[in-house]
Amino acid sequence: MAMRACCVPRFPFSVFRFPASVTDTRLVPARPGRGVLREKRSRFLAFASPIESAERAAEEIQRLRREYHEATHVAFAWKIGSGDAARARASDAGEPSGTAGKPIALAIEAAGVTDVLVAVVRTFGGIKLGTAGLARAYREAAARALTEAGSRLLRETVRILVTCRYESAGTVRRLLRPPEVSLSEERFGAKCLFRILVQPSRLVDLTRALEAARLTYQVESVEGAPKGR
After folding, report:
1. Where are the extended beta strands (E) located within the chain?
2. Considering 153, 172, 197, which residue would you say is the last residue of a domain?
């Protein structure tokens, strides 16, 4: 991404305001998890997998279909991201509509995690469970896998590169408000270079302040964010 040279009218320095603390975090699986449920001879084998993209979810689903090629169904649901940026998908994989994918998705929501795929491999045992029985079995199997996977708190940060003349270095340092806006790296050569880590909820305020001070900056990356489309 090209460096942004800010040539905008100077605003009062009070443009950089921090509201009450907002936590830019989300819960993600701590590890892969597995759960097994047997219901009237049918076996429901559930797998909860941390994922970062829809492509990674598709690869894992295909792997399970190859490994359990004799299974009757491989239903799944996944969720990536959080808030307005969250993306999700669910599939009944040939089961009656709403009896597999949706119950798995409900188990994910109940667990409160994201960046996760839960796939449930069903082997039919010869006795029909009915739509209500199927939904309960898929949700319970998914919940068991999610419980084993556990959760951990992931903090998102945006990394910004700021370059300036030596006389502006003090201005950059005055913008720091740890832990919401913290200094990751600083270098001094022909110009001063600062790498700043900022929580997403603080990003707009920070970039406005940088522009108000006529400082050149570049958004380098978002750490802890889901990848892909």
Report:
1. 25-28, 33-39, 42-50, 73-80, 87-91, 116-123, 152-155, 157-164, 181-188, 192-198, 216-223
2. 153
